[in-house]
Amino acid sequence: MLLEIDDVSLLYGRIQALHGISLTVEEGEIVALIGANGAGKSTTMRAISGIRPVASGRIRFDGEDITKLRADLRVRRGLCQAPEGRGIFPGMTVLENLDMGAYTRRDRAGIAQDLDRVLGLFPRLAERRKQQGGTLSGGEQQMLAVGRALMSRPKLLLLDEPSMGLAPMLIQQIFTIITEINEQGTTILLVEQNAQQALARAHRAYVLETGRIVKSGTGEELLHDPSVKDAYLGVA
Amino acid sequence: MTTTVNPPSPEQREGLRDRLRHGREAVAQRWHHAPRWVRWVLLAAVIVFFYALPNKEFYQYLGPIPTPGANFTQVLFTVSIYVLMAVGLNIVVGFAGLLDLGYFGFFAVGAYTVAVLTSPSSDIKTLWPWLLVVPIAIALTMVSGVMLGTPTLRLRGDYLALVTLGFAEMIRIAAVSSPFLKGQRGFNQIPHPPGQYTDGKPIFGVLDARPYYWLVLTLIIVVVIGVRNLTHSRVGRAWISIREDEDAAQLMGVPTFKFKLWAFAAGAAIAGLAGALFAGKQNFVNSQNFELLNSIIILAAVIFGGSGNIVGAIVGGGLVAYMIERFRGIELFGVELYEYRFLFFGLVLVVMMIFRPQGLIPNRRRAAEFKDRRKEVTVGE
Ligand SMILES: Nc1ncnc2c1ncn2[C@@H]1O[C@H](COP(=O)(O)OP(=O)(O)OP(=O)(O)O)[C@@H](O)[C@H]1O
Ligand SMILES: [Mg+2]
């Protein structure tokens, strides 16, 4: 088991955002986390990447308890998140942003190799390598955020709504790339509003409602689950 | 040069701001495209100019530049101290993006450390030489920076501003009212740095400010080289990433707290050094030297010059300190302009923030960050 979250709760001041959630991610999987706005999807990601401390419960990653580990050290263990709302560095160029993704690494040859790989996955970024991040279009920033996270060569890639705000064409493209990344050997935990696409691509998925996991199963199962259909897939 | 100067027509004048901007960009372009040796020669010329500046034989030919109301070399010393501090504060505010409103507090720690350990008016009567005390002063300011930063740098933005403000005020009040720090009476006979001319006269003294100015100038150059190297390293990349997006920086594996603390401590150390130099030069330290206003001025100078850019900080610190002194001794309709210096200063700042929020010589990245933030404001949540 690569990631195991056990009964995790998280508080924002007095507001409890997560009420004892548990989930697992196996090596090689794409796992999707779906749920309505405010369900706690991003919060779950923050707990895993460590930028918010958990109130109770444990998080295990790659055989090690990381519940209390600092966020930057989790990156060194192979856990990297592309944040929601892109969160790229606006004043840095595309290349500098990608370079920041490899901040924890020192293997120059490996970094150069991964840079080629990322620029191969996202030709648009290759064309704009000298452009400042802040001047990229929304879609390009999204790609940059995903590419930058890949540059840390993570064992587990956390993607928080990578398709947010993209045109349908680009959404397709992003999901194709996510599948490709996964096939190249990176495990992925994916948060999505776009439940249809996410469930179709994911091996397994969890449904989150007001800070609780209410359903889980294979992507296929949930895609055909009547209650999931009703709540998250629109009229199907 | 073969350009002819014509009075600007109305259309031309309308575009003055744009033309100024284009002009500046053209200068920047030229600078960046000039061959390496040209840049080195120009840089060397600038440095030589500033080393020559405090000599009367030189500055008497510089028209309105020397200050009429004050000894020009003394003014230059003050200006150089401000420049040194601006370079230090720029690390904190410009590179790491931490709002430090009490930077002068560290200057005070440096100056008082020197005063207490060297002056015969001090209660502890150690009477150590100046040079020995300088490293102690720097170390102590660094420690106070770490002590102040450790609890506050984990919190976001505004807290730090308030805490640093409180810190500077605390130091000032301690200076005014603690018997150990001697209040208004202060510490006298603080020793100068070592060194003698061949005829046995000491190099550093109260009357001739030139050696002190040269010393500070040299230290500025050393510090700038150090800071430049730092910013082009992993440390600099970490600072910039924190300033641009702290959460994202953390998600990329940057130990944000550690680097913020480093920036804070490095800035504090430079202020401590400036304080130690000041104490030696003045020969005297009392509670009047550390008004809160100084912290604000130095911060304004960094922002004015273009925070995040070393050259910007130098120009900002230099210009602001110089302008304030330049008002001395100028009378207009029977009023001494010096009395109103902060009014002018405030006006310039307001105008500046409206038309050029990124500062005189902005940092390329900073400009993009400003745009990014503006977008956030207009698009909203
Ligand atoms: N910093 C914060 N302070 C207080 N409450 C917060 C904070 N961040 C999130 N919350 C609250 O926690 C709950 C979960 O938020 P979260 O961002 O995890 O939702 P989400 O599932 O990612 O939603 P969305 O799909 O809109 O991104 C929400 O009710 C939200 O208001
Ligand atoms: Mg979210």
UniProtKB/TrEMBL annotation, chain A:
Keyword flag ATP-binding: yes
Annotated keywords: Amino-acid transport, ATP-binding, Nucleotide-binding, Transport
InterPro entries (alphabetical): AAA+_ATPase, ABC_branched_ATPase_LivF/BraG, ABC_transporter-like_ATP-bd, ABC_transporter-like_CS, BCAA_Transport_ATP-bd_LivF, P-loop_NTPase
Pfam family, one: ABC_tran
Alphabetical list of Gene3D superfamilies matching this protein: P-loop containing nucleotide triphosphate hydrolases
Family, per entry: Belongs to the ABC transporter superfamily.
PANTHER family: HIGH-AFFINITY BRANCHED-CHAIN AMINO ACID TRANSPORT ATP-BINDING PROTEIN LIVF
The protein, known as: ABC transporter ATP-binding protein
Species per Swiss-Prot/TrEMBL record: Micromonospora musae
UniProtKB/TrEMBL annotation, chain B:
Membrane listed as a keyword: yes
Record GO terms (molecular function): branched-chain amino acid transmembrane transporter activity
Record's keyword terms, sorted: Cell membrane, Membrane, Transmembrane, Transmembrane helix
Family annotation (InterPro entries): ABC_transp_permease (IPR001851), LivM-like (IPR043428)
GO cellular component term of the entry, any: plasma membrane
Domain of life of the source: Bacteria
Membrane topology category: Multi-pass membrane protein
Bilayer-spanning residue ranges: 37-54, 74-96, 103-121, 127-148, 160-181, 212-231, 261-280, 292-325, 337-355
Keyword Membrane found: yes
Location within or outside the cell: Cell membrane
UniProt protein name: Branched-chain amino acid ABC transporter permease
